Amino acid sequence: MASFIIVVCGRCGGFLAAKAEQKTRTCPYCGSKILLSKSKHVAIANDAYEALNILKTLKKKAAEKRKHQ
Ligand SMILES: [Zn+2]
Fold first, then answer.
1. Is residue 25 over pLDDT 90?
2. If you measure from the C-alpha of residue 39 to the centroid of ligand 1, how many angstroms do you get, rounded to a whole number?
3. Ligand 1 center from residue 30 Cα (angstroms)
4. Do residues 47 and 1 lie in contact, with contact meaning Cβ atoms separated by under 8 Å?
5. Mean pLDDT on 20-43
């Protein structure tokens, strides 16, 4: 059972991790309040360590994408 979800901020497109039981989360990048049930889930993780690793990978991918555009 996954305990962490990785979601995308609807306002700034930043990736962030939240505990699965949380309902809302404040975006660390733009400060907007995110309703987790209505946000786009990109990944799930079993623990905080895995969640952080997924975030790292996603951010790296996003940075590489920007570089190639
Ligand atoms: Zn944001």
1. yes
2. 11
3. 4
4. no
5. 95
DSSP for 12-65 reads T--EEEEETT-SEEE-TTT--EEEGGGSEEEEEESSHHHHHHHHHHHHHHHHHH
In angstroms, what is the span from residue 46 Cα to ligand 1's centroid?
A: 23
Q: Mean of the pLDDT values across residues 35-60?
A: 95
Number of residues written out for the chain: 69
10 CA to centre of ligand 1 in angstroms: 7
Q: Give the Å distance between the CA of 68 and the centre of ligand 1.
A: 23
Q: Domain coordinates of the chain in residue numbers?
A: 4-68
